[in-house]
Amino acid sequence: MELIKKALKEGRTTLSEYESKRVLASYQIPITRELQIDNVRDLARVSQKIGYPLVLKGCSPEIAHKTEKGLIRVDIRNEDEARCAFEEIVANMEGGGGSVLVQEMVKGQRELALGLIRDPQFGPCVMFGLGGIFAEILRDTSFRVAPIEKQDALEMMQEIKGTKILGPVRGMEPADQGMLADILIKVGQIGLENDDVKEIDMNPVIISGSRPVVVDALVVLGSAQ
How many Å apart are CA 187 and CA 181, to the nearest integer? Predict the structure, then answer.
């Protein structure tokens, strides 16, 4: 994949959120509607194109932990709020380069984490679990060695302790487990077809209605050797 080759040629070990999602989208994995901008002049046009409410994020291969660094603004309702958010994010990036991601605000109360790790012994392994800010604390996850089939993916969803979150919770419609299974299968394919992809972290994947949407993503690169 050219995007990955370009990053490696530049000596990078991570893709930006925008680049990471381009990789996912090339495998038909559902991601947020978003556009990347470098200056405030493009903000009004892009905001209107995506539609309010919006999320704005600082975006650069060097940026991890965007929340802690004050690089995310959510529920932006109009042009004035968007301009203010843009200026605050650029200031918090402290001249470190990078762009601002203008993103649709995906609404949903259930957050999942899906991804891939490249194990030295087993190769690419697919992960499914609870997501959001408590993912690292709860560590409620299930793994399979890629490639996986639909039945494997469905079993992974049943293995986590919080599996009931996928059902009709508090009046919410059940999550589309078929779509989730398809995402897990495709994540495994990315690992099998791209030896330089060391890790994929998709957190959160928000269940919007019944449909899973990847809201944030990080692809980590490393030599297959």
Answer: 10
